[in-house]
Design a protein that fits this description.
TIM Barrel, two-stranded antiparallel ribbon, 11 helices, about 35% helix, globular
Length: about 325
């Protein structure tokens, strides 16, 4: 008997982050879903390619679509600086890294209302695509920061999104202890709120590094765990992508695309006993029982009182 075979089949979500960051990344994700093992993607509402990438999702088949919330990064927020002063610098830009955000938030210089306003605008923009929203997570995994995590969980409940990512790292990672502590806290909050949380989410350790050999090793390690629902976070992208030059992350986007679309990868997934899934198929539904779904969020008549007021709503030029 092959050593690859586990005793019980498990579900594997292969989620590609940063959809709408660039055209090449968005097209690479769609190709990895059509011809590879990617089952889900997280949409960056502040991504420069959002409007084009949103239209492409209409023909994307059964791919799961989530929200990749951002309070950091190279791209500006959706709201004007005057409405979210504690999230931006004098130029109206987010901090570039999670460390810079954590320093500000840890010293009490981030207003929770600013976070709530900007993230509400972002989920509204993704909802406007018209595709069911299956899950939520955050750029640079900042859902682990308690202030951001609480806001995201509240928005998930408000918009009837049923699942959230709680990332983890290996024990050898230098941030293993804080990630474990913050992850446990977020998992408890999400579980109490009725959200689906994968038993294991892998991505921080291997972010941007899943070339074919490392992807095979990672899949085999996941198969040895006892987790019944596993998420693997990936970052595929097309090789020719001039827009990506401004994102100096050191990611091997095209190598990941090659690995994820290789026929041997799908065969290995099957041999390891995984069933490919997205958050929706893993849960069986994208909303709590009784919710009436409109574009992936509940019937507005059921939650209009809990949404931002009309004065606080966001309107985008050319919004879909």
């Amino acid at each position: 008997m092959s050593h690859d075979l586990p005793p019980v089949p498990r579900a594997l979500i292969v989620n590609a982050d940063d959809y709408a960051l660039t055209d090449g990344i968005s097209l690479g994700i769609l190709r990895a879903a059509q011809h590879g093992v990617v089952t889900s993607t997280s949409v960056l509402a502040v991504g420069p390619s959002f409007e084009r990438a949103a239209r492409w999702l209409a023909d994307a088949g059964d791919i799961g679509v989530g929200v990749h919330f951002a309070v950091v990064g190279e791209d500006p927020p959706l709201l004007p600086a005057r409405e979210i002063r504690t999230l931006v610098d004098r130029r109206g830009r987010f901090p570039t890294t999670w460390k810079a955000f954590a320093a500000r938030a840890g010293s009490g210089r981030v207003d929770p209302d600013d976070v709530a306003r900007e993230l509400a605008a972002q989920i509204e923009r993704v909802a406007s695509i018209g595709h069911p929203i299956t899950h939520v997570d955050a750029h640079q995994h900042l859902q682990l920061w308690p202030l951001v995590g609480r806001t995201i969980v509240a928005l998930a409940a408000r918009f009837r999104v049923a699942a959230i990512r709680v990332p983890g790292v290996s024990p050898a990672h230098p941030l293993s202890m804080p990630v474990a502590l913050l992850g446990a806290r977020l998992r408890r909050l999400a579980t109490r709120s009725g959200l689906l949380v994968p038993d294991r989410s892998v991505g921080i350790d291997v972010a941007g590094k899943l070339e074919p050999a490392r992807l095979r090793i990672t899949l085999r390690r996941l198969a040895r765990s006892r987790a019944s629902l596993v998420e693997l976070t990936v970052h595929p992208g097309e090789q020719l992508d001039p827009q990506r030059a401004r994102y100096d992350w050191g990611y091997r986007w095209s190598d990941e695309l090659t690995a994820l679309t290789d026929a041997g990868t799908r065969q290995l997934v099957q041999r390891l006993g995984f069933r490919l899934a997205n958050y929706s198929s893993a849960l069986g539904a994208t909303a709590p029982r009784g919710a009436e779904m409109v574009f992936g969020i509940a019937d507005p008549s059921r939650w209009s009182d809990s949404l931002p007021s009309r004065r606080d709503r966001v309107h985008y030029p050319g919004r879909m």
